[in-house]
């Protein structure tokens, strides 16, 4: 067996190093409560807090959450504005607790076109320092993210390297492509969770999810909690990962 084949585990490791989550169902949950959609998004933040804590305690090293897609701009302005200020506020209010717990926030997506106040919150979170040796988990927040945007950007960057004469087309490998994605340097997610009963990827991490185990639950995101996250990890442990082999 070559080096390369050797580092891919055949069966699921006890705890995934990287978990990705499509947090879906805030609007339907709010409707069920007789409330406006933003009420659901606000309760969604509470679910994020609990799941982040549970993931860090379980030893997950990277947690990537889909907070706003490039397609979500198509929602009514009032909802978009509400989501943007909710996220900006949550980043600031959670920052000290997260930093204290050794959780680093990282943001992936087309951040330059986000509202100024949100960009300022992102900047504060990015510059928060975690003491040497205390880093426990990286929380990737996907904001104005879509996989096609990411792959288009990566392709453009690689094209520019070729055009400058810094790269031969023969040197374009899967590893090189991975190194141009927003998740560069991180392992691919072993587990993807999507709440609310929808069974699709909605333009999330298309490259990185190539061999990821998918876990769908009918629970709406505001009702997803630590116990349900733990259940998803247990389901993952029962999976047999073959990677095309026997
Ligand atoms: C997920 O919940 C949050 C975002 C996409 C921002 P939704 O807002 O999509 O809720 P549903 O799917 O309409 O119930
Ligand atoms: C995916 O949920 C995006 C986020 C969770 C941020 P959506 O609710 O936007 O996806 P669709 O429209 O059901 O595919
Ligand atoms: Mg939805």
Give a description of the structure.
There is one protein chain. The chain is an alpha/beta fold. The chain has helices at residues 3-6, 26-32, 37-58, 77-100, 116-127, 147-164, 174-178, 226-237; strands at 18-22, 62-69, 103-108, 137-145, 191-194, 213-216. Strands 3-4-2-1-5-6 form a 6-stranded parallel sheet, with helices on both faces. Helix 5 (116-127) links the parallel strand 3 and strand 4. The chain starts with a helix and ends in a 9-residue tail after the last helix. Residues 1-6 have low confidence and may be disordered. The structure holds 3-methylbut-3-enyl trihydrogen diphosphate (2 copies) and magnesium ion.
Helix proportion range: 40-55%
Secondary structure tally: strands: 6
**How are helices and strands ordered from N to C?**
HEHHEHEHEHHEEH
Heterogens: 3-methylbut-3-enyl trihydrogen diphosphate, magnesium ion
Percentage beta strand: 5-15%
What is the CA-based Rg, rounded? 19 Å
Strand order of the largest sheet: 3-4-2-1-5-6
Low-pLDDT sequence parts: 1-6
Please tell me the overall pLDDT: 95
Number of helices: 8
Gap from first CA to last CA: 14 Å
Give the biggest sheet.
6 strands, parallel
The SS-based structural class is alpha/beta
């Amino acid at each position: 067996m070559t080096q390369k084949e050797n580092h891919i585990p055949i069966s699921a490791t006890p705890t995934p190093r990287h978990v990705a989550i499509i947090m879906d169902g805030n609007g339907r949950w709010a409707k069920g409560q007789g409330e406006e959609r933003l009420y659901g998004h606000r309760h969604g933040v509470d679910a994020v807090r609990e799941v982040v804590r549970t993931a860090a305690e379980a030893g997950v090293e990277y947690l990537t959450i889909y907070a706003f897609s490039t397609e979500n701009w198509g929602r009514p302005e009032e909802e978009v504005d509400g989501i943007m200020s909710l996220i900006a506020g949550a980043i600031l209010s959670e920052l000290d607790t997260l930093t204290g717990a050794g959780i680093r926030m990282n943001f992936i997506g087309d951040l330059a076109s986000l509202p100024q106040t949100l960009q300022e919150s992102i900047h504060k979170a990015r510059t928060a320092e975690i003491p040497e040796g205390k880093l426990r988990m990286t929380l990737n927040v996907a904001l104005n993210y879509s996989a096609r945007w990411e792959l288009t950007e990566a392709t453009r960057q690689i094209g520019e390297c070729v055009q400058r004469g810094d790269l031969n087309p023969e040197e374009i490998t899967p590893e090189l492509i991975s190194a141009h994605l927003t998740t560069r340097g991180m392992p691919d997610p072993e587990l993807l969770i999507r709440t609310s009963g929808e069974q699709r990827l909605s333009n999330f991490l298309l490259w990185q999810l190539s061999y990821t185990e998918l876990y769908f639950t009918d629970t709406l995101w505001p009702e997803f909690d630590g116990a349900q996250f733990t259940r998803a990890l247990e389901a993952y442990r029962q999976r047999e990962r073959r990677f095309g082999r026997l």
